[in-house]
Design a protein that fits this description.
The protein is of the alpha/beta class. 34% of the residues lie in helices and 18% in strands. The chain contains 9 helices and 7 strands, in the order E-H-E-H-E-H-H-E-H-H-E-H-E-E-H-H. 34% of the residues are buried.
Length: 220
């Protein structure tokens, strides 16, 4: 049983998050993708008044029409701040030893993994699925300390077409899967700025999420 774990602040969740999750699910043959909103992320600040429960509610609304998407509140129940290693250990316990977990992350986030809590333990617990957009600086992987020797020509080949997949070995013995995803220039930061300026965010968010934000006067 192959399970994708997609963590993040999702502040707020938007269509690019959903698109990346769906593309990774399809390419990797995942039974489901579990969205895990972080409670108190150690690397990011969350605006005052935007509670973990708010972000969790928005993620649930965004995922409700996809039968392959699940949402977990595990990080709201664990000690804070939120550490990915604790989340993966808990998810493995919940799904059992027959489940193989795949941690979904963007390229920029993955390249910062050296600053994550207990990273040496984390990279032994699961495979990683790293999504990257054509034109991303993926060649940094060739000298990345957590990945074994990489053939740059293989990386170049991956960048030639959209929605292809490659595999590398991590120093922990686990696999690193690279999935090239369709470029979608949508970010939570830009959405927050638009909302603060009272500009439209239509088509950048699922409709229910947009309505929830407006009704609760979030990000104003």
């Amino acid at each position: 049983m192959r399970i994708g774990i997609f963590g993040g602040t999702f502040n707020p969740i938007h269509i690019a998050h959903l698109d990346v999750a769906e593309q990774c699910r399809e390419e990797m043959g995942l039974k489901e993708v579990v969205f895990v909103p972080s409670a108190m992320p150690p690397h990011k600040e969350v605006e005052q008044g935007i509670t973990p429960e708010c972000r969790l509610n928005m993620v649930r609304m965004a995922c409700e029409d996809n039968p392959y998407f699940k949402v977990s509140d595990v990080e709201l129940t664990l000690p804070r701040p939120s550490y990915s290693v604790r989340t993966i250990e808990m998810m493995q316990e919940n799904y059992g030893n027959d489940a193989k977990l795949f941690f979904i992350a963007g390229m920029d986030s993955f390249l910062e993994i050296g600053s994550w809590h207990a990273v040496d333990r984390l990279i032994k617990l699961c495979d990683f699925v790293v999504s990257f957009r054509p034109g991303a600086d993926y060649k940094k992987l060739a000298k990345f300390r957590y990945v074994r020797e990489v053939d740059v020509a293989t990386l170049d080949a991956l960048d030639q077409k959209v929605r292809t997949m490659g595999k590398m070995e991590m120093v922990s013995g686990r696999d690193l899967w690279l999935v090239s995803t369709v470029r979608m220039d949508v970010s939570s930061t830009d959405i927050r700025k638009r909302l603060h300026m009272k500009r439209s965010v239509k088509y950048l968010l699922p409709e229910r999420v947009e309505s929830y934000i407006i009704q609760n006067r979030l990000y104003v």
